[in-house]
């Protein structure tokens, strides 16, 4: 069994990597800058603008009034601004969206990973054609940038002046609401007086941070929108009054939006509908303005004309008189053609169409001039033939002679735009060329791993038909569910209902079992009641995200929340007082346990005061004033150091106790490790989720009284790991990744430290239930060895030397075999679903994020947590 299991778990990361290479290819791009000499259309038409101020308000979604104050709305109504709703394709996170805005291309989903690796440079746009690179090549000024340092990483050596702010350092949210934006705004007056630049980029982060913390309806949102509106007003007034700014185009936009929970990364209307506004007094020459704020409501946030976010790149190219970037898939926005005569408008669209045609011919490997196609394209048998037909029709209509009627010009413009939009749709859909060979090899490797794990589990499954049917049903049911997008989005319900059914089974089984008692059956029933509380704690998933739940209700009653939090810490301190720091004097043991828990509790209070002060509203905590001189980083490090040293002391003491054969020695290492891990996990949790640990602790004590078999313990641990992940607010969407505790104890961005803390803070529940499952297995092993094991709440497991080695090894091997079987089957199901549905409408919004989560569950949670950490806890003596 051990050989098969080892081989299966070695294959898992290999299969994941091979499949990812085929599923997330890093798309090739055309190098170099486009030039006007590449076409036969002569000199480009005169551009209405020669400078641009590009103002990105992170997570600014399309709303009725664009911003909360009146300035932007008044500009829209007067015709000095033209608003749009920019459609941002998934993934709706900063780096891919900045790529789309500047290159006009469709970014790879691999950028989701690169977006979190702030030190990464492989995603740089230094060698790609962008409108920023074109403005630099134009040579009439430098480029300047202030705000999110993602721009500095994407465009190295581009900006002559810059001041970047990290977008992920969110350890003190309340400061991030103002200070990160003030750092941008302070540069504006000087830059508006300077005349040595032709492009100024500003990327504000405060609104996004408010959304992540408290959602789009936070009381902090309106003041922030008013602040952004006032900045627009300041810039617009300078454009009107300063001579050197009269040909400046101000673009206000969001890189993405946010959902009703304040997060982003997925495909909900709020996330994919950022605002986009072009602002300049010159726009009054081509538009009379539109109504602002708009009437009525729109569930999909489409308040204004919708354009693709990639359309920004070719539109800016035309407005600024620069070539369209080589890798662009965007289409010039029609509303701006009013700046030019018909012939010049056609020339702009011809350049856009020619650039798209070149990409299409390179993609499909055929010339669009080869087929002899009719004017009517209704009989085209393929997308390529249809595109060739549209190209021919546009070419025929653009042969404009002097004096041609205006209707002919409009027909040519319509034909060119129709070709461009069709090419855009086709090329965007083929933006990721899957490596089918790599996909097949990855699936084959996963199938081999699943076969090995199943073979290792076969003796276990044959021993109990009832358990084998139940476990197989969980594996197969979960696998089948991966082929339906709606079930993937609402996966939590599978685990909620499955775990409830499992506890109901244990209840009835204990009533019928001769070794069971009514008390043990009632214990199963109480655990089932705890599951009801757990599943209602955070409303998660996609359909009901943001709906009322226990967290929202308890947050309205601060005293109730903090009473539950305090009881959780008090219960943990009680357990440490009874078991931790053995061999030390009783008074010193008490001091150490109390000090550690008190430090952890005060850190959480201080963090909440900085992060969510509304949760402390009405609560007087005088001790906080004494901690103001101590930074949150120092406080967190103190807690982590205390936990680490306590774990080290426990391990060393257990070893010396066995070596020296200390009298009155009680082996409680497993329980102490569990308690210290719990303290660390509480520190990495949102304060509103801390009371869940009290529920979990009650459940584990009740489960211990059920005298579960190893098979039952493994299934229970597996089910509760997934239940707790969703109960803490997790989903299969990138937007649910919680970064609020990713910087505890970190003074700056560190990819390893932040990565580990991010994983722990998002997998807190599964890690806890891994540890709890190990305690139950140790308790069973102790009972099997013929020793009377004290209940978990009273501590003390017999030592390893009194247990039959083979029996304990068999228990552990069976536990790993069952977990490996489920992991490999679930991973194989996700891979097959992604490969089979790679042309599905929701492949990038549902199935691709699910694969990323499957990677985390298989490698980080299964191999690192369940196997590696679990083995250390199981064999710790």
UniProtKB/TrEMBL annotation:
Record carries keyword Transmembrane: yes
InterPro entries listed in its UniProt record: Alkaline_phosphatase_core_sf (IPR017850), Phosphodiest/P_Trfase (IPR002591), PIG-G_N (IPR037674), PIGG/GPI7 (IPR039527), PIGG/GPI7_C (IPR045687)
GO cellular component annotations of the record: endoplasmic reticulum membrane
Transmembrane segments: 7-26, 436-458, 465-488, 494-511, 589-607, 632-653, 711-731, 751-777, 816-839, 851-875
Molecular function, one GO term: CP2 mannose-ethanolamine phosphotransferase activity
Pfam families per record: Phosphodiest (PF01663), PIGO_PIGG (PF19316)
Annotated compartments: Endoplasmic reticulum membrane
Annotated metabolic or biological route of this protein: Glycolipid biosynthesis; glycosylphosphatidylinositol-anchor biosynthesis
CDD domains in alphabetical order: GPI_EPT_2
Role played: Ethanolamine phosphate transferase involved in glycosylphosphatidylinositol-anchor biosynthesis. Transfers ethanolamine phosphate to the GPI second mannose.
Family: Belongs to the PIGG/PIGN/PIGO family. PIGG subfamily.
Full protein name: GPI ethanolamine phosphate transferase 2
């Amino acid at each position: 069994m051990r050989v098969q299991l080892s081989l299966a778990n070695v294959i898992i990361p290999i299969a994941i990597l091979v499949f990812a290479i085929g599923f997330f290819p890093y798309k090739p791009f055309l190098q170099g800058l486009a030039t006007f000499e590449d076409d036969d259309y002569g000199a480009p038409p005169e551009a209405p603008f020669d400078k641009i101020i590009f103002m990105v308000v992170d997570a600014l979604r399309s709303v009725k009034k664009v911003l909360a104050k009146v300035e932007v709305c008044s500009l829209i109504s007067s015709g000095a601004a033209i608003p749009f709703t920019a459609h941002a394709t998934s993934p709706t996170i900063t780096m891919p969206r900045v790529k789309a805005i500047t290159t006009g291309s469709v970014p790879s989903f691999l950028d989701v990973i690169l977006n979190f690796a702030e030190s990464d440079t492989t995603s740089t746009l230094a060698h790609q054609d962008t409108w920023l690179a074109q403005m630099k090549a134009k040579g009439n000024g430098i480029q300047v940038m202030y705000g999110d340092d993602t721009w500095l990483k994407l465009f190295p050596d581009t900006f002559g002046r810059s001041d970047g702010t990290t977008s992920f350092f969110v350890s003190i949210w309340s400061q991030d609401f103002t200070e990160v934006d003030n750092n941008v705004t302070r540069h504006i007056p000087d830059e508006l007086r300077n005349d040595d630049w032709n492009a100024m980029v500003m990327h504000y982060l405060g609104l996004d941070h408010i959304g992540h913390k408290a959602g789009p309806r936070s009381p902090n949102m309106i003041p922030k929108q008013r602040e952004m509106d006032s900045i627009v007003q300041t810039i617009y007034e300078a454009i009107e009054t300063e001579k050197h700014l009269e040909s400046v185009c101000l673009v206000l936009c969001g890189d993405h939006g946010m959902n009703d929970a304040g997060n982003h990364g997925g495909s909900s209307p709020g996330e994919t509908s950022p605002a986009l506004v072009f602002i300049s007094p010159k726009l009054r020459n081509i538009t009379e303005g539109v109504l602002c704020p708009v009437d009525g409501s729109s569930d999909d946030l489409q308040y204004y004309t919708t354009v693709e976010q990639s359309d920004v790149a070719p539109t800016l190219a035309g407005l600024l008189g620069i070539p369209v970037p080589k890798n662009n898939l965007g289409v010039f926005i029609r509303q701006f053609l009013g700046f030019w005569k018909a012939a010049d408008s056609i020339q702009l669209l011809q350049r856009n169409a020619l650039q798209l045609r070149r990409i299409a011919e390179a993609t499909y490997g055929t010339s669009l001039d080869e087929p002899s196609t009719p004017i009517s394209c209704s009989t085209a048998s393929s997308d390529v033939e249809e595109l060739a037909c549209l190209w021919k029709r546009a070419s025929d209509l653009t042969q404009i002679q002097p004096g041609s009627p205006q209707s002919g010009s409009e027909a040519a413009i319509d034909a060119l735009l129709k070709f461009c939009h069709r090419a855009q749709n086709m090329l965007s859909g083929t933006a990721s060329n899957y490596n089918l060979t790599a996909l097949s090899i990855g699936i084959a490797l996963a199938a081999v791993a699943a076969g090995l794990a199943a073979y290792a589990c076969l003796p276990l499954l044959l021993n109990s038909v009832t358990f084998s049917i139940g476990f197989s049903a969980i594996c197969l049911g979960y696998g089948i569910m991966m082929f339906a997008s709606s079930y993937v989005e609402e996966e939590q319900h599978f685990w909620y209902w499955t775990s409830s059914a499992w506890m109901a089974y244990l209840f009835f089984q204990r009533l019928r079992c001769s070794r069971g008692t009514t008390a043990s059956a009632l214990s199963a029933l109480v655990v089932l009641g705890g599951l009801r509380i757990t599943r209602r704690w955070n409303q998660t998933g996609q359909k009901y995200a943001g709906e009322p739940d226990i967290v929202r209700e308890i947050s309205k009653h601060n005293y109730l929340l903090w009473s539950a939090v305090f009881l959780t810490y008090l219960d943990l301190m009680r357990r440490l007082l009874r078991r931790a720091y053995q061999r030390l004097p009783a008074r010193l043991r008490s001091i150490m346990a109390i000090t550690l828990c008190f430090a952890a509790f005060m850190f959480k209070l201080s963090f909440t005061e900085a992060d969510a002060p509304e949760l402390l509203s009405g609560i007087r905590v005088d001790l906080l004033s004494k901690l103001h001189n101590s930074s949150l980083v120092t406080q967190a490090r103190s807690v982590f150091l205390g936990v680490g040293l306590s774990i080290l002391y426990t391990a060393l003491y257990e070893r010396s106790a066995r070596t020296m054969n200390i009298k009155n020695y009680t082996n409680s290492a497993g329980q102490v490790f569990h308690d210290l891990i719990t303290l660390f996990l509480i520190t990495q949790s949102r304060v509103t989720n801390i009371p869940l640990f009290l529920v979990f602790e009650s459940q584990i004590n009740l489960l211990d009284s059920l005298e579960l078999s190893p098979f039952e313990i493994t299934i229970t641990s597996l089910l509760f790991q997934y239940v707790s992940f969703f109960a803490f607010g997790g989903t299969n969407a990138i937007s649910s990744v919680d970064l609020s505790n990713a910087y505890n104890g970190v003074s700056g961005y560190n990819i390893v430290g932040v990565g580990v803390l991010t994983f722990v803070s998002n997998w807190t529940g599964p890690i806890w239930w891994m540890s709890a499952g190990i305690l139950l297995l140790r308790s069973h092993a102790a009972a099997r060895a013929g020793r009377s094991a004290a209940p978990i709440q009273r501590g003390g497991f017999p030592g390893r030397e009194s247990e039959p080695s083979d029996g304990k090894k068999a228990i552990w091997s069976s536990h790993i075999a069952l977990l490996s079987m489920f992991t490999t089957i679930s991973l194989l199901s996700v891979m097959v679903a992604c490969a089979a549905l790679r042309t599905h409408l929701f492949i990038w919004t549902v199935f691709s994020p699910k694969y990323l989560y499957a990677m985390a569950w298989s490698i980080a949670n299964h191999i690192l947590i369940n196997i590696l950490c679990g083995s250390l806890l199981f064999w710790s003596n």
